[in-house]
Write a structure and sequence with these properties.
The protein is built from 4 helices and 6 strands; from the N terminus they run H-H-E-H-E-E-E-E-H-E. The chain is of the alpha/beta class. It has a 3-stranded parallel sheet. A 3-stranded parallel sheet has the order 2-4-6, covered by helices on one side. About 10% of the residues are buried.
């Protein structure tokens, strides 16, 4: 920005340039950044940022994410693993029920959100929720738990 457009041009000749004689325009009077959050700026922190300081919960030393790795899928997305063509093919032959092995797809747990089409399916998974199991059995399917 050229100098002639700076706001300060209008303040030339006025001693304090709009910042007052008493308070004085100093660099960082309350400290830089979040300084003083537990001291002189405490009121602001307590009022507008409650819970900023302190800890919560328990510590878990040497946490390995692998132990908690459990990808999920809901019932409404179950058939997308096979595809619509396969579903229609299986719907024609009433005697056959396709086997969907979730562990082959890298999925460990089956949850029960959504509806299943009215055709039987055999699902193999490490974990299956009660609701998912109930809905699969309602359409004539079966659940197999694998390690």
């Amino acid at each position: 920005m050229p100098t002639n457009l700076h706001k300060n041009r209008k303040k030339r000749g006025h001693v304090s340039a709009g910042h007052g004689r008493i308070g004085k325009h100093r660099k960082h009077p309350a400290g830089r950044g979040n300084a003083g959050g537990q001291h002189h700026n405490r009121i602001n922190m307590d009022k507008y940022h409650p819970g900023y300081f302190g800890k919560v919960g328990m510590r878990h030393f040497h946490k390995q994410k692998n132990h908690y790795h459990c990808p999920i899928i809901n019932l409404d997305k179950l058939w997308t693993l096979l595809g619509e063509d396969k579903r229609l093919e299986c719907a024609k032959d009433a005697g056959k029920a396709p086997v969907i092995d979730l562990t082959d797809h890298g999925i460990f747990k089956l949850l029960g959100k959504g509806q299943l089409p009215k055709q039987p399916v055999v699902v193999k998974a490490r974990f299956i929720s009660k609701l998912a199991e109930k809905k699969i059995k309602e359409v004539g399917g079966a659940c197999i738990l694998v390690a």
